[in-house]
């Protein structure tokens, strides 16, 4: 058994950011990470062509802004180089291959007891700390909807977190389910690799360009969200025209309002819209009614046979499955129980970072707030 002041679960950007902030205040801590590397989402569970959608001023971790020479939009490679530099600069040394299987609050000692299983040799370990930070991410488990007949599908089914590129799908019929940022970009990637690509778009969605999102994010620093939404939606309509004839309609509420309220990001168009407009990517503007062997039947009675289905249907947080006393900070859905901007703080020394659906921008803010709070409590 090992005891420190703070245990951080997860060595993604959130866990690394908290570690840097705690070290700055000389607070002893340990990061427990199930994989054999840090930032595993970025190193292992994102498709090849992924790049940061937001400008570098919204994508840095505490204490280390990007230098003026950095590109405005970092590639995945640039971002991972940044992470490597961060880890080296703040001397961050996570314990790798430690899958946290349970965490309980010891009411007598008023401490957290965390049990891990070593993913290499199966050995079990126990760690104890006054403070526990959940930094396991919003994307820890892929969500796959329970569609009627899904198990009868005769082709390949994969979640977007396991999709790397369309290289093996040339000339195959591939259906992408979901039109968030993953689905829209994966559809474009499949098209580029020569797949006959279709996408399911069952609800309205905001499509914006990279530049419009950047302008919107900057405007939000000075203007109220409804004003920014009005300007950006107007400019987006000018740029893209009415997309409803292609099966894409805009929600009534604005993109940044919806981001704040629902957490759902607007789609950043990487080139998909042009291919939808010219018919190279086919839209099914409906839900999936059922699947029969190779055939997918849609709610509007259209049907088509596919070789593969990519489920770009989002993620779920599963921290509440291993964190036995999750109610001190999370709801039953694994999301923070307190409302933004107090979402990061729970009771009994329990915190959560990176669960506010605000990307790396939110990660930085949470890490700073949590480290400050722990520092204050200790002094
Ligand atoms: C495809 C994709 C692209 C994205 N692009 C952007 C972007 O451009 N800009 C942006 O701001 N955000 C983006 N995001 C959001 C993303 O959530 C953040 O970039 C960032 O990775 C969040 O960091 P995190 O540390 O909170 O979570 P994660 O990066 O998910 O890290 C969590 C870590 O916890 C570990 N872990 C999980 N469970 C356990 C356990 N039980 N025991 C031990 N370890 C565990 C995981 O292995 C992982 O290493 C993107 C997300 C996805 C899916
Ligand atoms: N480079 C980048 O910055 C990237 C960032 N990301 C981010 O990662 C996070 C996760 O994104 P993503 O993986 O796209 O997940 P999202 O949760 O954003 O999107 C899930 C999509 O799946 C759809 N869906 C869910 N269930 C069904 C169903 N039964 N039938 C049809 N459609 C369904 C949803 O549609 P509905 O609205 O109808 O529920 C939605 O369009 C987001 O924050 C995103 O912005 C992702 C990729 C790249
Ligand atoms: O990963 C997310 O969804 C984020 O919060 C960051 C982000 C990625 N793409 C975006 C588009 C608009 C606003 C935020 C994001």
UniProtKB/TrEMBL annotation:
Keyword check for NADP: yes
Catalytic activity from the UniProt record: indole-3-pyruvate + NADPH + O2 + H(+) = (indol-3-yl)acetate + CO2 + NADP(+) + H2O
Pathway in which the depicted protein is active: Plant hormone metabolism; auxin biosynthesis
Molecular function via GO: flavin adenine dinucleotide binding; indole-3-pyruvate monooxygenase activity; N,N-dimethylaniline monooxygenase activity; NADP binding
Keywords, ordered alphabetically: Auxin biosynthesis, FAD, Flavoprotein, Monooxygenase, NADP, Oxidoreductase
Keyword Metal-binding carried by entry: no
EC number annotated for this UniProt entry: 1.-.-.-
Matches recorded under InterPro entries: Auxin_biosynth/cation_transpt (IPR050982), FAD/NAD-bd_sf (IPR036188), Flavin_mOase (IPR000960), Flavin_mOase-like (IPR020946)
Cofactor field: FAD
Pfam family, one: FMO-like
SUPFAM superfamilies in UniProt: FAD/NAD(P)-binding domain
UniProt record, GO biological process: auxin biosynthetic process
Family the UniProt entry places it in: Belongs to the FMO family.
Annotated protein name in UniProt: Flavin-containing monooxygenase
Organism: Clitoria ternatea
Taxonomic lineage of the native organism: Eukaryota, Viridiplantae, Streptophyta, Embryophyta, Tracheophyta
């Amino acid at each position: 058994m090992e005891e420190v002041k703070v245990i951080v679960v997860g060595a993604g950007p959130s866990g690394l950011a908290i570690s840097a902030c705690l070290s700055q205040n000389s607070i002893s801590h340990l990061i427990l990470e199930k994989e054999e590397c840090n930032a595993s989402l970025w190193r292992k569970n994102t498709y090849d062509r992924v790049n940061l959608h937001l400008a570098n001023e919204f994508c840095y971790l505490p204490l280390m802004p990007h230098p003026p020479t950095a590109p405005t939009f970092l590639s995945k490679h640039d971002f991972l180089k940044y992470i490597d530099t961060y880890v080296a600069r703040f001397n961050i040394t996570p314990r790798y291959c430690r899958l946290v299987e349970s965490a309980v609050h010891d009411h007598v000692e008023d401490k957290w007891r965390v049990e891990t299983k070593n993913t290499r040799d199966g050995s079990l370990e126990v760690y104890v700390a006054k403070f526990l930070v959940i930094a396991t991410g919003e994307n820890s488990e892929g969500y796959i909807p329970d569609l009627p007949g899904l198990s009868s599908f005769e082709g390949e089914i994969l979640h977007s977190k396991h999709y790397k590129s369309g290289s093996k799908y040339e000339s195959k019929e591939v259906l992408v389910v979901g039109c968030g940022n993953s689905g829209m970009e994966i559809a474009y990637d499949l098209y580029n690799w020569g797949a006959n690509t279709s996408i399911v778009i069952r609800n309205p969605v905001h499509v914006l360009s990279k530049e419009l999102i950047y302008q919107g994010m900057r405007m939000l620093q000075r203007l109220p969200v409804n004003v920014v939404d009005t300007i950006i939606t107007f400019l987006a309509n000018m740029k893209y025209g009415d997309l409803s004839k292609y099966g894409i309609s805009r929600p009534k509420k604005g993109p940044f309002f919806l981001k704040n309220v629902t957490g759902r990001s607007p789609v950043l168009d990487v080139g998909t819209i042009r291919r939808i407009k010219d018919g190279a990517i086919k839209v099914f503007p409906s839900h999936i009614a059922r699947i029969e062997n190779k055939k997918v039947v849609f709610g509007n009675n259209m049907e088509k046979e596919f070789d593969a289905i990519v489920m770009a249907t989002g993620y779920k947080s599963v921290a509440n499955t291993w964190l036995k006393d999750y109610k001190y900070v999370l709801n039953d859905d694994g999301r923070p129980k307190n409302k933004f901007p107090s979402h990061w703080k729970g009771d009994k020394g329990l915190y959560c970072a990176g669960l506010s659906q605000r990307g790396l921008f939110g990660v930085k803010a949470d890490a700073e707030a949590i480290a400050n709070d722990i520092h204050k409590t200790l002094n």
